[in-house]
Amino acid sequence: MSSALLTDHYELTMLRAALASGAANRRAVFEVFARHLPLGRRYGVVAGTGRVLDALADFRFGDAELSFLRDNQVVNEQTLEFLASYRFSGDVYGYREGECYFPGSPIMVVEGTFAEAVLLETVILSILNHDSAIASAASRMVHAAGSRPIIEMGSRRTHERAAVAAARAAYLAGFASTSNLMAGSTYGVPTAGTSAHAFTLLHSSEYDAFQAQIDSLGADTTLLVDTYDVAKAVRTAVELAGPELGAVRIDSGDLAVAAHEVRQMLDGLGATKTRIVVTSDLDEYAIAALAAAPVDGYGVGTSVVTGSGAPTAAMVYKLVAREDAEGALQAVAKKSVGKPSRGGRKNAFRALEDGTATAELVTTSPGDPAPEGSRPLLHELVRGGEIVGREPLAAARHRHQSSVAELPVLAHQLSQGDAVIPTVFT
Amino acid sequence: MSSALLTDHYELTMLRAALASGAANRRAVFEVFARHLPLGRRYGVVAGTGRVLDALADFRFGDAELSFLRDNQVVNEQTLEFLASYRFSGDVYGYREGECYFPGSPIMVVEGTFAEAVLLETVILSILNHDSAIASAASRMVHAAGSRPIIEMGSRRTHERAAVAAARAAYLAGFASTSNLMAGSTYGVPTAGTSAHAFTLLHSSEYDAFQAQIDSLGADTTLLVDTYDVAKAVRTAVELAGPELGAVRIDSGDLAVAAHEVRQMLDGLGATKTRIVVTSDLDEYAIAALAAAPVDGYGVGTSVVTGSGAPTAAMVYKLVAREDAEGALQAVAKKSVGKPSRGGRKNAFRALEDGTATAELVTTSPGDPAPEGSRPLLHELVRGGEIVGREPLAAARHRHQSSVAELPVLAHQLSQGDAVIPTVFT
Fold it and tell me: Which chain A residues touch B311 with a CB distance below 8 Å?
């Protein structure tokens, strides 16, 4: 399916006017950067890079797209001709997926002609802003959960396709699995789930429902115990499944109190290995508050797919340099009140001291080597139109673990604060 | 593209266990209702109904979907066989799209066997929760804007496919147009847009950029005037386009002050008909604050596509009745602490007095006629598996206008408050 119309109307009118004026073929450098972190957050997480590369590969104007643009007089024939043979032929550099990020530094750099690079603004920002918002929230939840696994189960609380991307972003930030089958099928994210209250209500009794579930899914399944009376349900569950019962899920009430009571009951019934999974409007704060409760796993829905109060990252796509009439690359920047941009092609490095991050270094001499004690953050993703930066999702997940481990411990305070390291422009 | 895997894992394990226990074929009634309105809102707007019908038509398990489920051992062979021939054969009733809604009443009712109806939970909720959240926020913005048109331009701030649905939802709630070309091509939403700062920066001077844009798009275009200096840009704009200049756009600074200054300048230059469009992180509050400013149109991005603080509606999909072992339909309800449900198939009506809504009436005798002075809210969408409730998007847009016009004036207070009419269960 073509991604070409996942684009703002004005990208095409700009293209049209630039083709007419002759400026369309000027070499241009666009940079993606975040104006700020989500309110009070200490760090952000880059996610969506792999999906950007997929969208780039599918960015083609076929007959259907061209007919729409012609019929609605969005552009003229000269522009339609350009679009019909559109292939991005430039270069893209970017932070690797899973890397932490800080405000102002170039998370992605797109170089090409103005014509070919301007068209990609909308779809690149849509993907990075959404996926990074989810991953940034998910990373905090993963840290709050410590060694306990989290299942992402928020599909029903977000757009049906956003749900698939959200499951992917949460997984790369450290979630253990997702309820979303399409995320399993498309991205190989492990999927999980057993039953809802409807299953218990469907049967003539909770006893019958548990029996049916155990018969079908085995004693190692997770039984949902809060449809009627938790204590009674736990007794029925162990009576039917025996001490081999995999887990019970509690989805309502005071989860800390309920977890303690259920643990005591399970232990008393000999089900000492049966795990307790809790769900019900959890976010990073609620997870942290349950740290001392006998909980073995969390299910998180609404809060992770909506970025826990920050449903979008604040990334923008700005022209920072372009060829002048003589063919020389010139830095450019707008001066809009309160929203200025920094001109010039940049490079970014993470400065480290004894393995701990101390600053995001942004230089305007892209060719310079990494400053001593720092590692480079920009990697080649597309070279001359050819995608070279693909990697397995597992690599991004692994990278996130290392990247977050480098941050000062203050990064994990859940209270509101500033970025944990400064962005230094040199 | 099949929508069948836009589904939570547990819907399929429940199906598997219910097929094994024999309960899968019990007749079942699921209802979608909102637990509450978004925080402080006076009313909600139902959106996504048409997209739900599209998703239902595409809910088919083909070879790719079945292979994934088999290879990942999500279900067993008996379940795969059921899925291979899955076609929803039941009935669906619902609020018509664009209708206002209030907490607790059945926004959608799905009747069929448990097996066929349970599978639809995730995709129905994803669509209704997302689209209704956007439309509910958009409706407030439209009212705040009065007769001034609003362009939806938030695609870059949300998932790339969610952006298309958001543009559709904003349009049905009264937005004039969208920047999103896919929303134009898929749903016929009018699209709009002219240029960004990058276009000005691309050219050697603002003068050159404006000239190029006017040459290509005509004097009736919208010129972006805040790249460098607003006053200078306005002078250049009128110098080049003359008094026929369509509009100028201001995207930064104190918009009220800037609008007054620019209006005065335009009038002084004879461009008395040139419109002023403002953009830059507008939400319903900022729009209302600009009511007295000489603004002719708004562009709204982030806040509308993220539901202006409420990115998801609080809709759930609950089993309210099912056949018992003797074939009789029984009301069922869970008792979970703080999250109980109300058993029994329901019907919903809007009570009116002198044309003004006074209550959302919910009855548990679905066959009864509309109480006097009320109009029925549930309409047939699917009959015996056949989709009968499709309608043009324009009809939903028109309905929203009438539905919102019926609400007490208090509905339009932007301050936080309770639902403007009560939901009365009889």
Answer: 158, 306-307, 311
